[in-house]
Amino acid sequence: MEIVKIGVLGIAGVMLALQFKSNRPEYGLYLGAAICLVIFTFSLNGLGTLLGRVKELEKYLKGSGDYIGFLFKAVGITYVCEFCASICKDAGYGAVAGQIEIFGKLSVLLMGIPVLTAVIENINAIAG
Known about the structure:
The protein is built from four helices and no strands. With 128 residues, it is mostly helical.
């Protein structure tokens, strides 16, 4: 039922922001950013619940806590970068949004290198 609330909140916020777009476009931008922050806080609440459930699963996945941590960090990086890039696009700064997206992709790639190294080491240990 939360998704319906978020959807209605988003649509209502956009409709309200459109009212300001012709006369005071900066107010529309501020309103859009505020709606994004409210939706972001709802997402963080859901993420907390998800984190609790994953910690329960971690009991069964011995030794893989680091990998689950990497996974959550990667999801967090992509979510924050997408959030910031969307706000920049709405403000008309597409180039800045593109750079934020590239930075996010590179950050996830760099974060994944230790995991890839561990996988390659395990394959070499099994094969050799």
